[in-house]
Amino acid sequence: MSTSVSAYAATSAAEPLTPTTITRRDVGPHDVAFDIHFAGICHSDIHTVKAEWGRVKFPIVPGHEIAGIVTEVGSEVSKYKVGDRVGVGCFVDSCRECDNCRAGDEQYCTGGGMVGTYNGVGRDGQPTQGGYSGAIVVDENYVLRIPDSISLEDAAPLLCAGITTYSPLRHWEAGPGKKVAVVGLGGLGHLAVKIAVAMGAEVTVLSQSLKKMEDGLRLGASAYHATSDADTFKALAGTFDLIINTVSANLDLVQYLKLLKLDGTLVELGMPEHPMQVPAGALISGRKRIAGSLIGGIAETQEMLDFCAEHDVRPEIEVIAPDYINEAYERVLASDVRYRFVIDTAALRS
Predict the structure, then answer these.
(1) Which of 290, 322, 311 is nearest to 201 (CA)?
(2) CATH of the domain at 27
(3) Mean pLDDT of 291-298
(4) d(Cα 25, Cα 136) in Å, to the nearest integer?
(5) Domain of residue 194, CATH code
(6) Residue 289's beta-bridge partner residues?
(7) How much of the chain, in percent, has pLDDT values that exceed 70?
(8) How far apart are CA 324 and CA 75, in angstroms?
(9) Do residues 188 and 245 both lie within one domain?
């Protein structure tokens, strides 16, 4: 029998999120049901509920950084049992048959695309609803195991912000002997710094100002520079093997490409409002690349969680109650959080 669950939902792009009740599906043979204990607030949640990224089917329950405890498993489930500590990230299904899905890159599914944890449509034809709620039901193949050494509140942001930064750092081989620059020190940037340092890279933060310099150095960066200072680009020319851009602003990419070494790569994680302007000469001179990266597949996300457990990588979080979500959104937009809001969903489970 389907279950009614308390949640917070957006009813339109112009209204605040409000308490509501949603229905979770019956637990099928391959499903895992779990009580949600914590859910991170991602800037993507805000973009979506404000309809800034296209069509939204309202009402919508956001949240794709979800951590909790298993309460029921389907008859054919082999990976999890009641009481396990688990999480769900940005997607809850994919075609499972295309080359990318078979290779473990489900986020790049070509057989219809991955099914988002919210604002997607499940195999049952019903809209998916996210983690600002008391419980969820997900196919076992899209559920992650949270290592015992990571608290559930710390695990939640790793399921989006963590994998979004881990995946490109791993793909472009950040590690000993590599110099990595992280553009922006926010929800994504602070984890990019921690993960790159844990991988053994030498890390520099590039931020508009020096106001978070103390934090950046505390998190493990060896240098911190203000991009508002033109001398920064002169001093750091030809320095980096890899630049991870975590901000969604339209940067002067020519300036940033000049910071790369021969064969260096600048990876875009954010989505700027306007198309990026890149003169060919900025790429040709130094055999440089601009690339993009989108979260990570299920296997890589599990790898990231295990890596963070092993290397003691944890997000910097502020835990809030569900009735503070709208204020938290305003603070995210004002860059007034260090560095991730996490909702304690106890009030939605009671």
Answers:
(1) 311
(2) 3.90.180.10
(3) 97
(4) 9
(5) 3.40.50.720
(6) 265
(7) 100
(8) 38
(9) yes
Question: In angstroms, rounded to a whole number, what is the distance separating the alpha carbons of residues 343 and 63?
Answer: 10
Per-residue pLDDT, 149: 98
Which residue blocks in 9-157 are alpha helix, DSSP H?
43-49, 99-102, 152-157
Range of the domain at 142: 3-150+314-349
The domain total for the chain is 2
Question: What SS3 state is found at 300?
Answer: helix
In whole numbers, what is the pLDDT of the chain averaged over residues?
A: 96
Per-residue pLDDT, 56: 94
What is the token pair recorded at 39?
């859910």
Please answer whether residues 91 and 119 qualify as being in contact, where contact means their C-beta atoms are separated by less than 8 angstroms.
no
pLDDT of residue 258: 97
Distance CA 101, CA 96 (A): 5
Whether the model clears a pTM of 0.85, i.e. scores above it, the answer is yes
**50, two tokens:** 């404000």
Distance of alpha carbon 2 from alpha carbon 25, whole angstroms: 5
Q: What is the token pair recorded at 183?
A: 């553009």
In a domain, 340, yes or no: yes
- The CB density around residue 266, as the number of other CB atoms within 10 Å, is 25
Whether the CB-CB separation of 245 and 267 falls below 8 Å is answered with yes
pLDDT band at 307 (very low <50, low <70, confident <90, very high): very high
Residue 285, token pair as written in the block: 């001179």
CA 45 to CA 90: how far, in whole Å? 11
CA atoms of 264 and 52, how far apart (whole Å)? 32
Q: Pull the structure tokens for residue 299.
A: 């296997």
Does 58 share its domain with 180? no
Task: Phi first, then psi: give them for residue 315, nearest 5 degrees.
Answer: -75, 160
Q: How many angstroms separate the Cα of 245 from the Cα of each of 32, 82, 314?
A: 35, 40, 20
Same domain membership, residue 209 and residue 98: no
Contact criterion met (CB below 8 Å) for 110 and 98: yes
The residues, any chain, with a CB within 8 Å of residue 330's CB and separated by 6 or more, are: none
Six-digit token string for 205: 């933060």
Q: How many CB atoms lie within 10 A of CB 88?
A: 28
Residue type, 349: R
Residues 337 and 228 in one domain: no
Instruction: Grade residue 207 by pLDDT with cuts at 50, 70 and 90.
Output: very high
